[in-house]
Structures are given as C-alpha cells and as structure tokens.
Fold this sequence. Notes:
Radius of gyration: 18 Å
Subunit structure: Homodimer.
Keywords: Hydrolase, Magnesium, Metal-binding
Largest sheet: 7 strands, mixed
CATH superfamily of the largest domain: Nucleoside Triphosphate Pyrophosphohydrolase
Family: Belongs to the Nudix hydrolase family. NudK subfamily.
InterPro entries: NDP_pyrophosphatase, NUDIX_hydrolase-like_dom_sf, NUDIX_hydrolase_dom
GO molecular function: ADP-sugar diphosphatase activity; metal ion binding
Strand content: over 45%
Number of helices: 3
CATH topology of the largest domain: Nucleoside Triphosphate Pyrophosphohydrolase
CATH class of the largest domain: Alpha Beta
Amino acid sequence: MKIKRKETIYNGFYTFRKLIVEENGEEFEREQFDSGSAAAAIVYDTSRDLYLFVQQYRYSAQMEMLEIVAGVVEKDDPEKTIRKEIKEEIGYAVDKLEHIWDFYTSPGACTEKVYLYYAEVSQKQEEGGGLEEHHEHIKVKAFTFEELQKQKQFDAKTIIAVQWLAARNNATLENPEVTS
Length: 180
C-alpha cells in the first residue's frame, strides 16, 4: 500500500486530509484525522501515596471523563511536553519520569501517537486546573491504588496506563460495568 497524494480538506483546531492510496495497481480514497501526537502520564504523588488524575468534560464523548494527564506534543519533545502538562493541569513539578510505551490510538483513521509515561511528584508548586486561554476546566482527582482499581475507565490511554500500573503491582483490575 502506498499513499500517492494528500490533500488538506480542513485545517482548524484539527486537520483532516483526503488521501489517494494505491494498492495492487488500484487507487482509492481515504480520510485521515490529524490531531498531532500526545504525551500522557500516570502520576503518583509520593508524599501522599496517591495517584493524580484529571477530570474534564469531553465534547466528543459528551461526558466528564477521568483521565491521566496529557497534552499535544510540542516541538517533537514528548518528555518536555508531559512535564509542562503536569505542571499546568495538576500543579506539580516532576521528580521522576519513566517512559512506558508509545502507541497509536486509532491507526485506521487517525495519526495520533501517544507517548506514555509514569511520573512521580511530591510537591505542589502551582494551582493546576489547566489554562483558561485553552478553555480548560480541569478538576484534579486523587486515588489510592485500591480506589483506583474500582474506577470506571472510558479513555483508552488511561485504561492502558492503569492496566500497566496494575501489572506492575501484580494486581488485577476489577471490571466495572461500562454504561454508555
């Protein structure tokens, strides 16, 4: 399979492209959603023995969602981006950062690649809550590991991070019923 041509059909907050793809001599069209790459981290506050998450309204899901800290990668530097996002969203400076995994969220239609980290923090330095100019209204939520295991998860990057944490702690997550 080979991409022959790309045409930007919309360029706003996100970008949509029409692709002309060739396979076995046949050409066909596909659409591509380009939201940029993301850096994300499951954050552990070592001073309080709590995991820190963010909760915010997500218009595509039409609901408040509990998520790990994340943001769009700036200047091709996911590590610098996640350190900045942790400070903006929950108000902490990072003491330790460990790279976990990189993955594509939906490679059939979306270009987004997520760079996933585990971060340790210990001292709050700022208010957090996101940036007003980005229209972020973020609530910080804190959980013990036991409480975290019982939380309903709907966000893929958060599910992957929590599953990683459970495996690291030799634990099995409960599977609360998912409702739409």
